[in-house]
Amino acid sequence: MDTLNIKKHFIWSLFLSSSLAYSQSNYQTQMNAIFEIPSNKVTTGILIDRSPDIIDMQNFKLQTNADSATVINTRNWLEVYYRLYASHLNMQNFAYNTTIANKYPRKVTNGNIYFGLIFYNYNKIKNYAVQNGLLAVDTITQKITDISGAGQSPLEVSSCFAASPLTDTISVGTYQFVLNDSLFVSNRKSNVQAIYVNFDNGQGYVR
């Protein structure tokens, strides 16, 4: 683990062990106090380091020259979903249902299995931002501060592409997979021309 990650996890431990009651406004205030990084450098409006590291986002990174999603289970899909939500500089800009965990998972309605797809770009702190003099981390004041020069940034853009049926257990029977627009969670929809799924039934990818 590099120096930045050690210090960042320490700051997260201090924050999560505090007695502050969780709320959207309190959370954003706390994150703004910790991360002193100009918003214009967070080009996607999402800094993934602002959220607890409950799941490793690099496991869902869209690889160069690849266009397939990582298929996961309901729990992991929700962890990615809520981590992206919590990472917004302004959480009110998240255009999707924040109570989704109570709506779809583990429910099969009228033979329909709802399918969730996440396709997002987000900013992240570069792995060696501290060592390269782009970022300063102070565990006493609990500050992560951008010290990069003109034309430089401690951040880079990464991507996430993950899919899951929003139920983990079903009985034997005939079902239909449904992808509603509300479950296609993305800030890159304009880059998508079509979606194909391989159900491993010998028919290959179908639209």
Question: How does the SSE layout of this entry go?
Answer:
Blueprint: H1 3-16, H2 24-34, E1 35-36, E2 70-71, H3 74-86, E3 112-125, E4 135-138, E5 143-146, E6 155-165, E7 176-178, E8 184-186, E9 197-198, E10 205-206
Parallel strand pairs: 1-5, 2-6, 3-7, 3-8
Antiparallel strand pairs: 3-6, 4-5, 9-10
Description:
It contains 3 helices and 10 strands; from the N terminus they run H-H-E-E-H-E-E-E-E-E-E-E-E. By secondary structure, it is an alpha/beta fold. Strands 2, 3, 6, 7 and 8 form a 5-stranded mixed β-sheet that branches. A hairpin with a 6-residue loop joins strand 9 (197-198) and strand 10 (205-206). It starts with a helix and ends with a strand. Residues 9-21 have low confidence and may be disordered.
Notable characteristics:
207 residues; alpha/beta; five-stranded mixed sheet; three-stranded mixed sheet; 3 helices; 10 strands
Helix-residue proportion:
10-25%
Weakly predicted, low-confidence segments: 9-21
The general outline is elongated
Total DSSP E strands: 10
Strand coverage percent: 15-25%
Structural class of the secondary structure composition? Answer: alpha/beta
Sketch the major β-sheet. 5 strands, mixed
What Rg is obtained from the alpha carbons, in whole angstroms?
19 Å
Supply the number of helical segments: 3
Oligomer status: single chain
Succession of helices and strands: HHEEHEEEEEEEE
The N- to C-terminal Cα distance equals 42 Å
Residue-averaged pLDDT? 81
